[in-house]
Amino acid sequence: MTRDFSGIYTPLATPFNAAGEIDERGLAANVDRYIASPLSGIVVLGSNGEAPQLEDEEADRAIAVVRARVPRTRPLLAGTGRESTRATIEACKRAAKLEVDAVMVRTPSFYKNLMTTDTFVRHYTEVADASPVPVILYNVTMYTGVNLLPDAVEQLSEHPNIVGIKDSGNDMVHLGEYIARAKPGFIVLVGAAPSLFTATAIGAHGAVLALAGLVPELCVELVEHVKAGRIAEARQLQRRLMPLARSIGPVWAVPGLKAALDLLGMAGGTPRPPLRPVAPPAIETLRRQLNELGVLETSSAAR
What we know:
- The chain has 303 residues and is α/β, with parallel strands linked by helices.
- It has one domain: Aldolase class I (TIM Barrel, Alpha-Beta Barrel), CATH 3.20.20.70.
- The chain has helices at 24-35, 56-67, 85-97, 117-130, 141-144, 150-156, 172-181, 196-201, 216-227, 231-251, 253-263, 280-292, 296-302; strands at 7-11, 41-44, 76-79, 102-106, 135-139, 162-167, 187-190, 206-208.
- The protein has an eight-stranded parallel beta barrel, surrounded by six helices.
- Helix 6 (150-156) packs parallel to helix 7 (172-181) and helix 11 crosses helix 12 (280-292).
- The longest helix has 21 residues, at 231-251.
- The protein starts with 6 loop residues before the first strand and ends with a helix.
């Protein structure tokens, strides 16, 4: 029986030490914090994990560190997208040997004008045919500049080893088409926190959110409100979460997320160049937003 990959996940940040290498102890400690939360599972090597900045050996080491901390009762997804089909397949096979539960494969994007629906269908079909573990499509147009259209998703959902998609856009018509046109049982995960309320209301099966790495309880609570029909409560909570969601999303992205993790007493640190840390005024804004959500005091007490 295929594992259920619905629910709320967070994409792990990848902390680096003073020498610029992966901070394995910090990464493990972050995972321990998340496992103590109500999150459904963990994603390693997503966009917020600076996956494009890591060498293959580093990526494999990060998976191994996380796998050792994540219990088998929680799904562990690993980002394995590469520009070539061949390299993507090899990354999937290495991740499978490290015993991840599924791989999350972003769209190749360098040759943008050639990335047609037919090209994507061929690419993902070959990857899914060869991957020893289930494949989750990953559409992140804000970074790749290409878009995995509903026509492609409808076709790919029929593949027995393609079990879902994470879409990081805010187009609810687009998301709704994924949900309506994919085969039954195909999981649709939203990847943009500002859309969590709306996406859940139209039938998304869960989310992979950087915001859930800072306020996991509140993200899970919002989804529970929607599913229980407590729409006013869900809408109010979405409004409360929006300032922080924007800060670690379109405003400051990965550097903002890492600064917020530091404020919570977790391992964030500096991003890998060419990304740069946020400036002090941004840190103060993040501090205020976290404080308004009541999580700074909680994190301090936990330490």
